[in-house]
Design goal:
Length: 230
């Protein structure tokens, strides 16, 4: 009986150690800035949910064009277009016209070549943008069209990247800060355009012409999207 209890304790300790290892690995990859952004998002969700808040769910899709830039302009030609789609949650506070938009988006892209020695590649990413939004409600036309502006962090988790030019030590978690504007149509359709600037550096291997050393740059992305809310 004592042996069985001892084995149970060892099993439980092993499970706890495994969970702790996973959490530590995630925190290391996500980085300090992403953890702060995540905390801000959670605090925003808690503080922006009074009893009068209106919550809508929706489907969102769009197209993103990204460019990896560095100070020496070595990576500026690394442009790629991605297609995104996923779910969104929109929380609106009517009296102050403020809101919170949280999405979970799947993004697929095919990268172009950086140099003659590099090859094109495919990338699969999960984006989690968390935006604070202001809606300009004009009484006469509010039910038909309402302009909006928004800003907030966007956490990107790279699920798969078969690029041969990426640095093996590069983090799979990336953080950007987005700003954008758009319109709500009939309170159920949202059209937006946003611009995101990478907050953490990304490493790319660009070939022998640069002594096989990784070059650090930051993502700059334009996104056009449309959403249907219910």
């Amino acid at each position: 009986m004592a042996t069985k209890n001892f084995n149970n304790v060892n099993t439980r300790n092993g499970f706890n150690e495994s969970v702790a290892a996973v959490i530590n690995a995630f925190q290391t990859r996500l980085g300090k800035m992403a953890r702060v952004a995540t905390l801000m998002a959670v605090m925003g969700l808690i503080s922006a949910a009074p009893a009068t808040a209106q919550v809508k769910l929706g489907f969102k899709g769009g197209i993103t064009t990204c460019e990896l830039k560095d100070k020496n302009s070595i990576l500026d030609s690394n442009k790629h277009t991605a297609y995104t789609g996923g779910l969104m949650l929109d929380l609106n506070i009517p009296k102050v016209n403020l809101g919170l938009e949280v999405s979970a988006m799947y993004r697929f892209s095919k990268n172009n070549k950086i140099s003659e020695s590099s090859e094109s590649s495919k990338r699969h990413v999960i984006d989690i943008p968390v935006y604070v939004r202001y809606r300009l409600a004009i009484p006469a036309v509010e039910k038909i069209v309402a302009p909006i502006v928004f800003t907030g962090p966007n956490i990107s988790l790279v699920v798969k990247d078969d690029s041969k030019i990426k640095d093996p030590e590069d983090s799979r978690a990336r953080l950007s800060w987005d700003v954008g504007a758009g319109v709500d149509l009939f309170k159920h359709v949202r059209l937006t355009a946003s611009y995101g600037i990478g907050m953490n550096k990304v490493k790319e291997l660009v070939g022998k012409e640069h002594n096989d050393k990784p070059v650090e740059g930051k993502d700059h992305c334009w996104t056009l999207s449309a959403a249907i809310m219910f």
